[in-house]
């Protein structure tokens, strides 16, 4: 390996990170963060084109949404907004027919009092010791992790479901894939 070439290539990302380059480079990710007061909040709705999602439980009184655009064009937008008792997070493509790339990574931290509804076309969902009511609908991708929630309704059209569950009424299904559940306690529910 040529040391000069390596040295130069390792310097290029630093210019983008420090903001020296003024024009956006679609090869490098864009990050956004939103924090919402959870007081009076009932639900977070995520409508995502293609997303790697991590859902985390928190004991705080805020909802934190962190988004990193992984693959996108200038027409790919990601926004989060609160409308009364609902926070909506959307990643979408301006439908001019010329682009179909809008893949994001989302980390959502929510207290147990807030219900989460996720609708994603593709990619994976990781649940990190969550204690909220969840409704997950993934077109294609795996759902993994651990929950101790008030309820879970999870479906993936093509993908595996591997969960550690406690205290949760549940309904899980996959169109094409495996379901593996480690059940702690006695949750009630349906597995399809």
Describe this structure in words.
This protein has 192 residues and is mainly beta. It has one helix spanning 3-18; strands at 30-37, 43-48, 50-57, 62-72, 76-83, 86-93, 102-110, 115-122, 125-130, 134-140, 143-147, 152-156, 161-166, 170-174, 179-184, 189-191. The strands form two sheets. The protein has an eight-stranded mixed sheet with strand order 1-4-7-3-9-11-13-15, with no helix packed on it. An eight-stranded mixed sheet has the order 5-6-2-8-10-12-14-16, with no helix packed on it. Strand 5 and strand 6 (86-93) form a beta hairpin. The longest helix has 16 residues, at 3-18. The radius of gyration is 19 Å and the shape is globular. It starts with a helix and ends with a strand.
**Total strand count, please?**
16
Query: How would you spell out the order of helices and strands?
Result: HEEEEEEEEEEEEEEEE
Oligomeric state as shown: single chain
Helix content: under 10%
Rg over alpha carbons: 19 Å
Compute the separation of the termini in Å: 52 Å
Q: Give the neighbour order of strands across the main sheet.
A: 1-4-7-3-9-11-13-15
Largest sheet: 8 strands, mixed
Structural class comes to mainly beta
Specify the overall morphology: globular
Average pLDDT score: 80
Low-confidence stretches are 1-28
